[in-house]
Amino acid sequence: MGTYAYMWEFLVRPEKTPLFERLYGPDGHWVALFRCGQGYIDTLLLKDRAVANRYVTVDRWDSEEAYARFRKAFAEEYQSLDERCRELTVQERSLGVYGG
To answer: Could you tell me how far CA 20 lies from the centroid of its own chain?
Structure first.
C-alpha cells in the first residue's frame, strides 16, 4: 500500500480566478475540508504557465481506503462545496488516480 493521489484539471473563468485560488489553495475551503479526514496528506494547486486560466490540483492521501472513508463521512459537505465551486470553472476533468 502506498500514497493515493488524484489529479484534476480546471479551466477557470477569468473573472473568478482570485476566488478559485483562495478556495483551492493551501489555506482554502477544500484543504480545510480534507483535513477533517484521517489520512489526508496535502494538496498542490498548480497554475499552468502557458494557459492563464488552467490549473491542476493534486490531492494526496495515505491510502485509497482513507480517501474512501473521508468521502463517506463527509459526503454532504463535499457535495455542498463542490456545488458552490461549479460557477468558478468553465470545465473540470479528472486526470487520473495515482499511487506510489
So the answer is: 11
